[in-house]
Design goal:
single chain; mainly alpha; 70% helix
Length: 479
């Protein structure tokens, strides 16, 4: 049975237990797996297994996630107003999380074999899965602003979350291609992979639901009367708008890298079997090691400055990979590890700034609208993650990439191979680094209001016989 919340709907002033930290972070198994595997494998699955043309495949990957731009704010408003003994967020972690797992496996079920009908089926299944993901991710991302009102505690919470996120990306991104190969490649291998990732998603949803049962649940409080009014309040929050736009553009850049991993490994490194797994291990592995260092750097420099530094490092590493065709494989993997260091910081500080924005808005307006804020955030993030494969697919189409229905990539022209390279390197760099300019004018943590200072003598209560009693009435406060 669930333990009672820490207070009457109010978040505790920091001091979350390790169980809550770990439990909340487990939800990133679900978000990491869904955010990674479609971006990594869905486009190659459509072009090289189902035989869908690259341009059409890019559209099929983009449109279902673009749907989340509409559904995520609705999911946020619904979770804001949910009443249950588990609070407004946790019921969605359980119900939508388990639905997400089942629907993800359905994406790769391939009941129509290969060809146009198979592509249409993937689009519909992906749309349903994206909807379930919205109703899981929006409440999940809204929770930190309600679990604690301590900004430093939220940063620690994000550190745990991003560490598990990195682990989820590593497991799902590195192991999923191996499962495809072990399952016999083609349609059969992708069916096994879909089941494997579905299990990861279910474990993450159950872990987040059970692990946060002893934390404050939040309470339904005053909100704007309509979704339109809520969106207007959020749209007027300039720091949030700048942070959101920066994160969306950077997510598109990161997703473009993810979409190109299989292509880059096969066409540039000439290692289609083990290359994707090694690339993923090099990209995500460092995040598990450097997270404490990024947290310390953020405490010293501030979250916004640290976010800019991490983003520049990520973009510089991506740009350097344009020389990959003439570099030894070991050097390429080392540069990818540098990308991973930047990626870890970019994720943790962007995610740590979000609940700070939400908490500042709640303090200013007295209305809890975390669901709408995070609904727009996750809509933007999901759109960015979908835009990345769309961009990469467009680059492939323009450069003349040849699709295949055999489960193995077809031979490509030098122009197509150049498209594979540029889509993995320069294009993501040009998305990630300039986006940080959006952050320049905005402080994300407004200073606390000054404590009112009396301008007249104040008579403080004293205890008779003490030293204070002898001096009582002689001191006044400064104006």
């Amino acid at each position: 049975m669930d333990a009672p919340p820490a207070g009457p709907g109010s978040p505790p002033a920091g001091g979350l237990s390790r169980r809550v930290h770990a439990g909340y972070a487990l939800g990133s198994l679900a978000t990491g797996a869904f955010g990674t595997v479609p971006g990594l494998l869905l486009l190659p699955y459509l072009t090289d297994t189902l035989g869908v043309a690259a341009g059409l495949a890019a559209l099929l990957v983009l449109l279902p996630k673009a749907w989340d731009v509409l559904v995520n704010p609705v999911a946020g408003r619904i979770s804001d107003r949910t009443r249950s003994r588990w609070g407004p967020r946790r019921p969605w972690l359980l119900g939508a999380g388990l639905a997400l797992a089942v629907l993800f496996a359905a994406i790769f079920a391939a009941p129509f074999g290969v060809g146009p009908a198979a592509g249409a089926y993937v689009a519909v299944a992906f749309l349903a899965t994206a909807t379930a993901f919205a109703f899981f991710q929006v409440p999940y991302v809204a929770m930190p602003a309600e679990l604690t009102d301590d900004a430093a505690e939220r940063t620690r919470l994000m550190g745990w979350r991003v560490a598990v996120l990195a682990l989820a990306i590593l497991i799902s991104g590195a192991v999923a291609p191996v499962v495809v190969t072990a399952g016999g490649e083609g349609v059969a291998g992708h069916r096994w992979m879909g089941g494997f990732v579905a299990v990861l998603i279910a474990l993450g949803a159950l872990g987040a639901f059970l692990g946060t049962r002893s934390a404050a649940t939040g309470a339904v409080t005053a909100t704007e009367p309509t979704l339109r009014a809520q969106l207007a309040v959020v749209a007027a929050d300039r720091p949030f708008r700048a942070l959101l736009l920066c994160f969306v553009v950077q997510s598109a850049g990161v997703a473009t890298i993810l979409a190109g991993v299989s292509y880059f490994a096969a066409q540039i490194l000439r290692d289609p079997t083990t290359g994707p797994t090694v690339l993923f291990a090099c990209f995500v592995g460092p995040a598990l090691l450097v997270m404490p260092l990024w947290t310390r750097l953020g405490a010293r420099l501030g979250k916004k400055t640290a976010l800019v530094a991490a983003s520049v490092l990520l973009a510089a590493g991506a740009a350097a990979l344009v020389a990959a065709p003439v570099l030894p494989a070991a050097v390429v993997y080392a540069v990818v590890a540098l990308l991973g260091v930047g990626y870890a910081g970019q994720q943790v500080f962007a995610l740590a700034l979000l609940p700070d924005c939400v908490a500042a808005s709640t303090a200013r307006t007295g209305r809890r609208q975390a669901g709408v804020f995070t609904g727009l955030w996750t809509a933007g993030e999901t759109f960015g993650l979908a835009l990345g494969p769309g961009i990469y697919g467009l680059v492939l189409a323009v450069s003349g990439y040849v699709s295949s229905a055999t489960g193995t990539a077809a031979p490509q022209t030098p122009t197509a191979r150049l498209g594979v390279l540029l889509g993995f390197t320069l294009i993501p760099a040009l998305l990630i680094a300039p986006a940080t300019l959006l952050l320049r004018p905005h402080p994300y943590l407004p200073p606390p209001p000054p404590t009112p200072t009396p301008t007249h003598p104040v008579d403080h209560g004293v205890v008779v016989g003490t030293k204070a009693a002898k001096n009582h009435g002689k001191a006044t406060t400064s104006p």
